Amino acid sequence: MQTVSENKCFGGVQGVYSHESEVCGGEMTFGLYMPPQASRGPVPLLWFLSGLTCTHENAMTKAGAQAYAAEAGIALVFPDTSPRAAEAADDEAFDLGKGAGFYVNATQDPWASHYRMWDYVSDELAALLFENFAVDSDRQSITGHSMGGHGALTLAMRLPGRFKSVSAFAPIAHPTRSDWGRKQFSAYLGEDETAWREHDSTLLMHDLGFDGPVLVDQGGDDQFLDLLMPEQLAEAMTARRQHGTFRMQPGYDHSYFFISTFMGEHVRFHAEALGVA
Amino acid sequence: MQTVSENKCFGGVQGVYSHESEVCGGEMTFGLYMPPQASRGPVPLLWFLSGLTCTHENAMTKAGAQAYAAEAGIALVFPDTSPRAAEAADDEAFDLGKGAGFYVNATQDPWASHYRMWDYVSDELAALLFENFAVDSDRQSITGHSMGGHGALTLAMRLPGRFKSVSAFAPIAHPTRSDWGRKQFSAYLGEDETAWREHDSTLLMHDLGFDGPVLVDQGGDDQFLDLLMPEQLAEAMTARRQHGTFRMQPGYDHSYFFISTFMGEHVRFHAEALGVA
C-alpha cells in the first residue's frame, strides 16, 4: 500500500492510498478519513460508496462529511467506483465501464476479468483497512449516493450482521426495471435476469430487508427521478415494515449540494447505530 | 446577468451567475449562496476571495461554508480570481495572468486592459449584487484564502467602513518581499515599488490597521510558509495593537482540508461582527 497524500482535517487525517488489487486486477485508490479519536484506539467505520463517473475523490472533497465524522469519532472510507487498470475493459458511455462498476462481480466478457467491485468492497478493501488502520470491524455502517446508494443498500441487505445501519442519498433503487441497471446488468451479469435480483434494492427489501435501521433521502427535484425509481423502494420498505425512514426533500436535486445538506444527519444516524452518538 | 445554475443547499440556494463585466472587459462568473433567511428580507454578505489557480467554483464546492452560512443567515459570494476574456493577456506560469489577478488594478501592458480585480470586486460586482439580490450593503464582511486572504485583508484595510470584520486563511501576508508578490506586482503595477505598498497586508497593517476585528488562521505545516511570510503580519498586528487574533494551527497544510476545518469558526466570527450571531 502506498500513501498518495495525507492532509490534516478537523483534527484527524484525510488520507489517499493506493494498492495493488488482486480482485480488480490492477492498482486501486481510496480515500480514508481517520478522526482524532483514532489515536486512542480503533474507531467505527462508515463506508461511503460514490455514484456514476466518480472516483475516490468526489465525496472526499465535496460532501463535507469529515466535520461530522470528527465530531462522532468515526472513520470514513471512500472507495473508487470501478477498476482502473489500463487493460480493464471500458465503454464510451459514462454509465458503463470505468466509473460505473455498479458494485457487482461481472460474469461476462470483457468485464469479468476486472469488474469485481462487490468482492473488492466487501472483502479485499475491507481486509486491507482492518489490517492497516485503527478501525473496528465489529462496528461498520454504510452509505452512498446514486449508484453508490444502490451499492450500500444491496451490500447491507446481503451481508447480514456486517453493517449496523445503512443509509442512501438518492439511490438507484430498482435497477432491474430502470435504464440505470438493465443496461449494466446485461453487460456485466448477462441476459439471465435471475442473476440480477440480488443487486436490486427494491427486490432485496421485499425478499430480505435489513436487520438494522435504514435512512433514505431523496431530492424532490432530482433530475433523475425516473431512473432512480424511489417510489418502488419506499413501497417495499413500508410493505416489509422495515425499521427505517424514507424522506422526500422538496427542491433538492441530485448534486453534492443535496448530499452535503443532509450529510450531518446521516453521520449522526450511523453514529447512533454504532454506539458513539 | 445570466443564471448558470441554481442548486438548493442547506435550505437556501447555491447559484452560479455570469455577466458582462465592463471593468474586466468580458464575461465574468461568480458563485452566490443565499441562505433560507433571505426569503424574509436582506441578509448580511460575506465575501470569500479565492487563491491562485482557483475559479468561482473551488471554495463553493470544497470549503463547506454553506452549512454555517445557513445557520447564521449570511449570504456568501465567491468571485473569480482574474479576468477570463479570451483576449485578456495570460502567462504560462500558474501564478501570473489567468487565475492570478492578485486583486489589483494593473497599470502596465499587456495587463492593464483587463486585469482590474480590485475595481471588479470592490465596485462592479458589489453593485451588481446589491441591485439583484436580497443582500444588505451595510452589513458586509470579507475573508479569503492565500492570494484571496491577501485580497481580503488589503480591501478591508483600504476601504474603511465597508467591512465589519475581516479574516484570512493562510494569506500571502507580505507580497512586496515575497516571490508571491514581487513577480506579479512588477508585471501588473510596474517597477516603482511605491505603488506596491497599498497591496501589502503587513505594510497596510503598520500604516492603517483595520477598524474592526481581524482573524487569521495559518497552518503550521503549510508547504508555502516561506512565500506567505505570516510572521511579518503577526508582528505587524501585534505592533499596531490591532483588535484581532492570529492562530498558528499545528499540522495543517495549505489545502481545502485546512480551510474547511476552520470555516465554521470564521463564519461565526463574522456573524458576531455582523450582528447575527
Account of the protein in words:
- Two copies of one chain form a homodimer.
- With 277 residues, chain A is of the alpha/beta class.
- Chain A has one domain (2-272): Rossmann fold (3-Layer(aba) Sandwich), CATH 3.40.50.1820.
- Chain A has nine helices and nine strands.
- The first copy, chain A, has helices at 57-62, 65-72, 117-132, 147-158, 179-189, 201-207, 225-228, 230-240, 256-273, and strands at 2-9, 12-21, 26-34, 43-49, 75-78, 135-144, 166-169, 214-219, 244-249.
- A six-stranded mixed beta sheet of chain A has the order 1-2-3-5-4-6. A three-stranded parallel beta sheet of chain A has the order 7-8-9, sandwiched between helices.
- In chain A, strand 1 and strand 2 (12-21) form a beta hairpin.
- The first copy, chain A, starts with a strand and ends with a helix.
- The mean pLDDT of chain A is 97.
- At the A-B interface, strand 1 and helix 9 of A face strand 1 and helix 9 of B.
- Chains A, B: The active site is at residues 146, 222, 254.
- Chains A, B: This is S-formylglutathione hydrolase.
- Chains A, B: One of its GO terms (cellular component) is cytosol.
